[in-house]
Amino acid sequence: MGKAKGSKAPAKGSKDASDKAGKPTKLKAATSVKVRHILCEKHSRAMEALQKIKVDNMRFDKVAELYSEDKAKQGGSLGWMVRGSMVGPFQDAAFALTPSTCDAPKLTDPPVKTVHGYHIIMVEDRK
């Protein structure tokens, strides 16, 4: 539902926000993010899911439905999460990501390791 631009997403998979010249840009301060994730207990399964998105060009939400091992099978959507409500590494990664869409996600690569397992994270919006 975000505006999809007709560019090929070279920043797909990057953790940093950057402008067209590849220079890092500052993200505006946010207190909450609308986040989706794919949670896998095993690193190998998370890497398989990551490949489906990056190489096979599958939509993030479809891969989440197939690979995520948590209760958020609604395309991996966790909804709006406020700062302080997430485990440290997950929160750090989520607030570092630039908002994107399921068909052209900017996501965590490599997956983020937490006590829950390995997360592939994408952010849809910030506020």
UniProtKB/TrEMBL annotation:
Ranges of residues in domain PpiC: 30-125
One of the protein's GO biological processes: rRNA processing
Domain of life: Eukaryota
Enzyme class: isomerase
Primary subcellular site in the record, as a coarse category: cytoplasm
A GO term from the CC aspect: nucleolus
Family statement drawn from the similarity comment of this UniProt entry: Belongs to the PpiC/parvulin rotamase family. PIN4 subfamily.
Protein name (record): Peptidyl-prolyl cis-trans isomerase
Organism: Dimargaris cristalligena
